[in-house]
Design goal:
Blueprint (H helix, E strand, L loop, with lengths): L18 E2 L10 H6 L1 H11 L2 E6 L2 E6 L2 H10 L4 E2 L5 H7 L8 H11 L5 H21 L5 E3 H18 L4 H23 L12 H26 L7 H7 L10 H32 L1 H15 L13 H13 L6 E5 L4 E2 L2 E2 L5 E4 L1 H5 L42 H18 E5 L6 E3 L3 E3 L4 E6 L1
Parallel strand pairs: 1-2, 3-9
Antiparallel strand pairs: 2-3, 4-6, 5-13, 6-9, 7-8, 10-13, 11-12
Helix pairs in contact: 4-8, 4-9, 6-7, 6-15, 7-8, 7-11, 8-9, 9-11, 11-13, 11-15, 12-13
C-alpha cells in the first residue's frame, strides 16, 4: 500500500546533489502539503531526489533519502547536527527527557538511563512480558470478536506498568493510558498543522487539552515515584533503577528528571510496541502464507509450551515478521536534525540552521533497497538468503549515538507477545484497508476489529 498522491519527476536526482522540492506558499512554505498527508508528502520528496530542498513555514529544510546521508545525520547528531526545538505539546509530555535533551545534559542522562535497559535487564523483564501475554491468551476464546488496537494497548500498558513501575493496579495504567491517548493525538495535530508555527505563548484548545493530559501524567508518575521512595525493600523495576542511579559526580536524577525519563520509557515500552503488534496482526491476516510460516516455526520451536527469553534467538522467523512490520509501518516515522556550523551531508555543505529531515516510512518503501517494497515478505530478513539491505536503509529505532535505548526491549517484547498469542490463535481482521495516521507514533486510522480463531 502506498500513500503517494502527487506525481514525481520523470528523472529524479539520485546521489548527493540538491534539487528543488515542490513550490510552497509565502510564509507557510510547504506546510499545507505536509500537514495534509505527511507520509505522502515524504514519498513525493523521495520521488524528486535524494537531497531535496523545501520549506516548513519560513524554515529552510532538506529532505534526505539516501542511506549514506541518513547514516551521516544519525551518527553526526551531537557533533554537527543538533536536536530541533520541538512543539509545546511534545515538550509538555516528554519534558526534557532523553529524547529531547542536548549536549552534556543528554550525555549525563543517557549514562544514567542506559543500565536499566541493557540486555541483562531486558532478560529479567522477559518473564513479565510472556506471562502478561499468557493472561490475555487465557482470556480469549474461539469465535470471540476483539478490537486488536484496544487489546494490544491494554496488554502493553500492563507490561509497561509492571516492568517500569513495579505495580499492578488498574488505576495506574488506565489513567496514564487515557492521558497518553490525548497526548498522542494532540502532538500529531500540532506537529502537522499551523500550531507548529505558533509561538509557545499562543493559547489554543489543543494546547489546553495537552496541558490537562500532562497534568494527569505528572500526578500518576509522581504518586508512583513517592511510593517507591517510601519503600524499604529494593525493587527490580526500571523506576527503582532510575531512582538509585548516580552519575560520575555522584548526583542522582532530580524528581523532574525522574518524571521525564519515566514517561519516555513508558512511551517506548507501551505506545511503540502496541502499534507494532497491531500492524503485525493486520499484515498477518492479509497474508496467509506468512501466517502459516510463522505458526510452523512456533510449533517447531515451542511445541506445547509458552516461550521464554531463551527462545528469542531461535524464533528467527518471528523476529523477521516484526522487522518486516517495522519496515512497512515504522512506529517512529521521521527523524530531524538542525545543522550546526560546518555540517555536511554526502560531501555537500549544509547551511547552519537548516533543518534536515528523513522518514523511515519513505526510505523503508524505496524499491532500490527493498525489492517489491509494498509486499509483506519477512523472508527478506533471512540471514542467509535474504536481501542485501544497506545500513540505514532500515532504521525504525534511529541510529548513531541517539539510537533508541529501548530497541532491544521492544524487539523482545514484540516477539514474545506474538509467539504466545499466535501459537494459540489466528486473528482474522475484518476486510478493508486500514490507513496509517502519523502522530507521536504511526497509528491505525480506526479500530482494528478481528475474530479470534483457535488453532
Amino acid at each position: 500500500m502506498s500513500t503517494q498522491t502527487g506525481p514525481a519527476l520523470d528523472t529524479p536526482s539520485r546521489g548527493h546533489a540538491f534539487v528543488a522540492g515542490p513550490k510552497g506558499l509565502p510564509l507557510l512554505g510547504n506546510l499545507p502539503q505536509f500537514g495534509k498527508n505527511p507520509l505522502a508528502f515524504f514519498e513525493l520528496l523521495r520521488g524528486r531526489g535524494d537531497m531535496v530542498r523545501w520549506r516548513f513555514g519560513r524554515n529552510r529544510c532538506v529532505f534526505i533519502s539516501d542511506p549514506d546521508c541518513i547514516g551521516e545525520l544519525l551518527t553526526e547528531t551531537e557533533r554537527t547536527f543538533d536536536q530541533p526545538a520541538l512543539g509545546v505539546a511534545f515538550r509538555a509530555v516528554l519534558g526534557n527527557g532523553l529524547i529531547v535533551a542536548r549536549g552534556r545534559d543528554w550525555r549525563r542522562k543517557r549514562s544514567l538511563v542506559q543500565p536499566s535497559v541493557r540486555p541483562k535487564q531486558v532478560k529479567s523483564y522477559a518473564a513479565t512480558m510472556a506471562s502478561s501475554a499468557v493472561e490475555l491468551a487465557d482470556a480469549w476464546s474461539d469465535g470471540q470478536r476483539v478490537d486488536i488496537k484496544r487489546e494490544m494497548a491494554a496488554l502493553t500498558q500492563k507490561i509497561a506498568v509492571r516492568t517500569i513501575f513495579g505495580v499492578d493496579t488498574p488505576a495506574d495504567s488506565e489513567a496514564m493510558g487515557r492521558a497518553m491517548d490525548v497526548a498522542q493525538l494532540e502532538i500529531g495535530k500540532e506537529f502537522a498543522g499551523i500550531g507548529a508555527l505558533l509561538p509557545d505563548w499562543v493559547p489554543t484548545p489543543g494546547r489546553a487539552r495537552i496541558k490537562k493530559a500532562a497534568a494527569v501524567i505528572d500526578s500518576e508518575v509522581g504518586r508512583v515515584v513517592a511510593r517507591h521512595r517510601d519503600g524499604e525493600t529494593e525493587r527490580p523495576d526500571l523506576l527503582s533503577r532510575l531512582l538509585t542511579a548516580v552519575d560520575e559526580s555522584g548526583e542522582r536524577l532530580s524528581d523532574e528528571e525522574i518524571r521525564d525519563e519515566t514517561v519516555t520509557l513508558y512511551i517506548g515500552g507501551h505506545e511503540t510496541t502496541s502499534s507494532t503488534l497491531v500492524w503485525a496482526w493486520y499484515l498477518l491476516s492479509r497474508n496467509p502464507r506468512v501466517r502459516a510460516a510463522l505458526t510452523e516455526e512456533l510449533d517447531r520451536v515451542l511445541g506445547d509450551r509458552e516461550p521464554g527469553f531463551e527462545d528469542y534467538t531461535q524464533l528467527t522467523y518471528t523476529q523477521a515478521v516484526v522487522k518486516e512490520t517495522l519496515r512497512l509501518y515504522p512506529t517512529i516515522w521521521l527523524i530531524t536534525g538542525v545543522a550546526k556550523e560546518g555540517a555536511r551531508l554526502g560531501g555537500q555543505p549544509i547551511e547552519e540552521g537548516t533543518r534536515v529531515w528523513s522518514s523511515q516510512w519513505s526510505t523503508h518503501r524505496d524499491a532500490r533497497w527493498f525489492p517489491e517494497p509494498e509486499e509483506f515478505r519477512p523472508e527478506r530478513w533471512d540471514p542467509e538468503d535474504g536481501d542485501e539491505i544497506p545500513e540505514y536503509a532500515w532504521f525504525p529505532f534511529g541510529g548513531g549515538p541517539r539510537v533508541c535505548l529501548g530497541n532491544r526491549f521492544a524487539m523482545v517484547e514484540s516477539v514474545l507477545i506474538l509467539a504466545v498469542l499466535a501459537r494459540r490463535f489466528e486473528l482474522d481482521v475484518e476486510p478493508g484497508v486500514i490507513e496509517p495516521v502519523p502522530s507521536l507514533t504511526l497509528q491505525p486510522d480506526r479500530d482494528v476489529l478481528a475474530t479470534v480463531r483457535a488453532r
